[in-house]
UniProtKB/TrEMBL annotation:
Family of the protein in this entry: Belongs to the chloroperoxidase family.
Gene3D superfamilies attached to this UniProt entry: Chloroperoxidase-like
Name of the molecule in the record: Chloroperoxidase
Boundaries of every Heme haloperoxidase family profile domain copy: 17-241
Entry keywords, A to Z: Heme, Iron, Membrane, Metal-binding, Oxidoreductase, Peroxidase, Transmembrane, Transmembrane helix
GO MF annotations, alphabetized: metal ion binding; peroxidase activity
PROSITE patterns for the chain: HEME_HALOPEROXIDASE (PS51405)
Names of required cofactors: heme b
Record has Oxidoreductase as a keyword: yes
Organism: Thamnocephalis sphaerospora
Amino acid sequence: MATGTASGLPRVPQTVTWSEKMRTWRDGQGQERSPCPFLNTVANHGIINYSGQDITTNRIRHVFRDDFGLKGLVLLVLMGGVHTFAAQERLHTRIASASHFHLRQIGQHGFVEHDASLTRRRHTCDNPKRAIPRDNAMIDGLLALAEDGYVTYNSVAQWRCQVRRQEERDGLHPPTKFPLRCRILAAGEVVGLLNVIGRDGRISVADAECFLKQERFPDNFEPAKLGNLAMLYLLWLTLVVFFKEEYVYWFGKQKDE
Ligand code: HEM
């Protein structure tokens, strides 16, 4: 049975089927949200607390493991991030048993949030919250590079390169100040976008627009539930995407040139 949350909205019980979870989407405006389109989307569908607050680590593990079939090292890495935010919250509240976090923590610059975003403006000292809301013009820029109606690794590499070059022109970050860790994290996010939300390394423009702009799962979306080998493959792909993006940046010909 659904129980209430701090936001007064019903909490989705863990026994509810995926298609029932999909029906509960509502716009997240005015709620606490993060720079991560995935976490915002599961909040907008009420799969985690719609308010974006007091999300338990158990709840998010359930979403990753049972809804999305993520396991092994991939699950460990994702949960590692979540546990760090929960530990911060424990320190902050001084409640030793607390094991929850809030979406606002995810926007903290320099931990997971980085300067290599595809759909967000980079954080600046003047405006640290600039990196949290999505920027629809940036999303349009990415979608415009789709190939045969699909956003692919190539589209993403081209777009990332355009964003980096523009920021360098704006004097925001010379390449030497763009840390390796950020680039690898960013590559992992691309792998998630094209294989967890999309399939087999690509996502249709319509689905990408739905997921990135509305922060909503596309109609008829079903999680892929990948096997153990596929998990290793995702990690391998992260390295491949990282090298591909670097190659396009240093040696590739830009579509706008
Ligand atoms: C299945 C799980 C997940 C998927 C598919 C996913 C997907 C994505 C994607 C596609 C982006 C890139 C957005 C962009 O470049 O504009 C992103 C960004 C981000 N994700 Fe996630 N994510 C997942 C889990 C998580 C978790 C567990 C955390 C935190 C513990 C997290 C934190 C972030 C943050 C902070 C960003 C912003 C990075 C930046 O642009 O500065 N994500 N995510």
